[in-house]
Amino acid sequence: MRTKLHLAIVAFFAFLTASNAQVSEKEAEARLWIKANEKELQINPEDSFSLRFVRKTQAGETLRFQQLKNGVPVFDSEILVHFSPYGEITSTASTYKPTIANINTTPSISKENAIAISNQALEVTGDITFQESKLVFYDKLGGTKLVYRVVTDSFSKTGSWETIVDALTGEVLSTKDIAYYYNKHKHGKEESNPPVAMAPFALVSGTGMVFNPDPLSQAGVAYGAAGYTDGNDAATTQMNNARTSVILPEIDLTAGVYKLKSSYAEIKELGSPAKGLFTQATSAFNFTRSEDGFEAVTAFYHIDKSMRYINETLGIPCVPYQGANGGLVFFDAHGANSADNSFYSNGQLQFGEGGVDDAEDADVILHELGHGLHDWITGGGLSQVNGLSEGSGDYWAVSYSRSLNQWTSDTPQYNWVFGWDGHNPFWNGRTTDYGASYSGGLVGQIHTDGQIWGTVLMKIWDGIGREKTDKAFLNGLDLTTSNTNQQNAAIAVRTAAMDMNYPCADVALMTEKFSEAGYTMPAISLRMNPIPNQTVQAGVSNTYTLPSYAELANPITDNCDAGLTQSPVVGTVLAPGTYSITMVATSGSTVSRTFTLTVLPFLDINENVRNNFIMYPNPASNQITVKGEFDANESVTIYNVLGQAVMNKAITSNEENIDVSNLASGVYNVTFNTAKVTRKFIKE
Question: Sign (positive/negative) of CA torsion 41, 46, 51, 52?
Answer without folding.
Answer: negative
